[in-house]
Amino acid sequence: MAAISDVARLAGVSKATASRALSGRGAVADETRRRVEAAAAEIGFIASPAAASLVTGRTMNVGVIIPFVNRWFFGEVLEGIERALLAAGYDLTLYNLADHGPERARVFDFFLARKRVDAVIAIGVDLSEREIASLEQRGKPIVALGGAEAGVPSLTIDDRAVGLLATEHLLHLGHTRIAHLAGTGAAAMPNSVHGRRRHGFLEAMTAAGLAPGGRAHIHETEMSMPGGYTGTLQLLGHPGRRPTALFAVSDEVAFGAFRAAEHLGITIPGELSIIGIDGHEYSEMFGLTTVEQYPGEQGRLAVDVVLRLLGEGEEADPLPDSGAPLPTRLVVRSSTTSAPR
Amino acid sequence: MAAISDVARLAGVSKATASRALSGRGAVADETRRRVEAAAAEIGFIASPAAASLVTGRTMNVGVIIPFVNRWFFGEVLEGIERALLAAGYDLTLYNLADHGPERARVFDFFLARKRVDAVIAIGVDLSEREIASLEQRGKPIVALGGAEAGVPSLTIDDRAVGLLATEHLLHLGHTRIAHLAGTGAAAMPNSVHGRRRHGFLEAMTAAGLAPGGRAHIHETEMSMPGGYTGTLQLLGHPGRRPTALFAVSDEVAFGAFRAAEHLGITIPGELSIIGIDGHEYSEMFGLTTVEQYPGEQGRLAVDVVLRLLGEGEEADPLPDSGAPLPTRLVVRSSTTSAPR
DNA sequence: CGCCTCGTCGGAACCGGTTCCACTCACGTC
DNA sequence: GACGTGAGTGGAACCGGTTCCGACGAGGCG
């Protein structure tokens, strides 16, 4: 429990000089700095973050709010954030908040409002006005990732464009009976990620003269492999002319569709083409055509923005995150092919 | 920016009394407490954790070290820990440490050694002597989860028994040509989770008079679905008498095996029985027979132990975590059946 | 009725850093 | 040679709580 006063005494300087020497702020003669550093090393001095943050008001800690840990996208983002934060000397405090329960209010009022974090990164959760106000009022920057928030800097891919792109890929292959496995609430919440991807689908279909509801089918399902499985069974299980292509809202959902197709004896891509969204780690194994996004990199970017807002990056790189959507890329594999005639 | 001195002034008491009233420590008259609480509520007083931890030495923060976020088991454990910690008023600081890189030393020396956390929960990472000593020396309790650590309280299932149980299930079904998809390093590190499961497999095979190496095959692979996929292709892809049953070291690996079997035109369970370990969220969808474990509950338990070590739970429930292995359960589904004759 | 005990409370020290301010001193300039 | 300048340093206040210790009054006991 060596304190800075011990270091100062050992180095023969004042506490003030020791602090300046170790923190790098303020002018200290080179020779003095070396003496102080040597003294600190000798007694194994470790500064108390509590004492520092008490006076500076900075905790060197960023809160991350995330609804799921075990969905691939979120896990990847979290890893990216963690790495970037660690490199910058920040700690990451995790809040796993799915719904708007009492838990959530408690986290905002009790944990985040306290001086436990300097900033907040919210992944895939829509913050309420009150929640945003509560944080901003205390001068804590917020950055949203996935799901644009009004009033706070948001990093997100263009989900509508991605839905459009995926659907157009299927259309270009000659498919006309195309189904969409959408995420829960896609129709009810047009501004959600699911809603925007659905919108892109509808837009492409309409532009191709394929009135949705006529031959296009949309089924909403949970964002998981079992969700894709049961959803696909619903979509393709009944007799009649089946869709020849399926646009799944995420790769995990698409994986479930693979399994359902196998169960139904439908071959891929012969009888059914499947495209997903994400660029999931497993998509190569499935041979899944997908629109890739890069969640790890997105997490890193979110940290960049946060650090800039905290006045760390200062000038440095100008970073063109001026509202431009994050990059995505169509990767064609073996799960999509020309429509059977 | 309301400080406790403001509360005290408003309530007409001293800082000392205000602190006692709000923290619940020390004797305060009921009427005084009510006045202080009313004053605190009125000006929206929020205590500074930095100030409190500076003097008490407690941060109300627990560090969690985890090698992956995106493996189901780890994600589930993390969620369980988060929930339990939050309920107890603790924050969770996440450290995503896979290998023994320089990053890792930095986390231990710079982050954990500082007074940023009160305790550490290490999931599936083997701590070095030095790392353990460094934490214990500073009075920070450590709890290990999955992969027993010498010298620190460890929560873990009995991996050898689980491997035994899974293999015996296949043996009871009459299988004699049984392959094991083991985790990386299973042979090289007999005390690892992978090593112990492999050991259980060998033990069951030997007891059944089936000399490993004769008709039993072991292949080591990455703990993921693609790992299971390529591993299974290796194991079953070449001609000759194939195994009729497969014991996969984890459910995710088993899922990959399903996919590989489909690719090879092998029916399940007709030509190949598959059993996994974990009780993965998706195992029901696959109809996978598995030995379930309960990672969310394990995380909760780890928090219980940590809180006890921090002197929170004090007496309360005696909790029989006296080294007894965590619960597991064999769940038979449609992926295993009698050996073909 | 005197004394002890206990509940209640205030004053003040303290946790361990950071930073403002004043001061010294060497150096360059006119 | 007088003076301004700025680097380098120390003293002390301060961040916002917690806790030790002592004071005080009321009630119980002998």
TrEMBL record, chains A, B:
| SUPFAM superfamilies the record matches | lambda repressor-like DNA-binding domains, Periplasmic binding protein-like I
An example molecular function term from Gene Ontology annotations: transcription cis-regulatory region binding
Against InterPro entries, the record matches this protein to: HTH_LacI (IPR000843), LacI/GalR-like_sensor (IPR046335), Lambda_DNA-bd_dom_sf (IPR010982), Peripla_BP_I (IPR028082)
Q: Where is this region: Disordered?
A: 315-341
Superkingdom, according to UniProt?
Answer: Bacteria
Is DNA-binding set as a keyword in this record?
yes
Question: Which Pfam families does the entry link to?
Answer: LacI, Peripla_BP_3
Task: Tell me which UniProt keywords the record has, alphabetically.
Answer: DNA-binding, Transcription, Transcription regulation
Q: Which residues form the HTH lacI-type domain?
A: 4-56
Protein name (Swiss-Prot/TrEMBL) = LacI family transcriptional regulator
